[in-house]
Amino acid sequence: MRVPADFDYWGLFHAVDERIPVDSLAFGARVFKQCSGVFPGWPIHITWAAMALSLMAWGPGKASVDHLLTKFLTV
Questions:
Q1: From its phi and psi, is residue 14 left (phi > 0), alpha (psi between -120 and 50) or beta?
Q2: Which of 43, 60, 62, 74 is the most buried (most CB within 10 A)?
Q3: What does the H/E/C string look like for 9-29?
Q4: What tens digit of pLDDT does each residue of 6-64 get?
């Protein structure tokens, strides 16, 4: 990429002494808290998600109704 010779590369980076408005920091913390899964129903949802992911990964197996019906209907 061609840039002018007097291009300020270091001006693109944030400095250590840069100030962040307190309201934006509080907003970011609130959004992170809400998006990180802090809600009262997470134990139920994570259990269902684990069961659904295991079924998608490995299939229902020999204990499923589909397998039993196939076994008994195909003689």
A1: beta
A2: 60
A3: CHHHCCCCCCCCCHHHHHHHH
A4: 887 777 766 666 676 788 888 988 888 777 766 677 778 888 889 988 888 887 787 78
Q: List C-alpha distances in Å: 50 to 39, 40, 45, 46, 60.
A: 18, 18, 9, 6, 13
Cβ-contact 60, 66 below 8 angstroms: yes
Model pLDDT, residue 43: 76
Is the entire prediction scored with pTM above 0.90? no
What's the CA gap between 68 and 74, in Å, rounded?
Answer: 10
What does the block give as tokens for 30?
């609130």
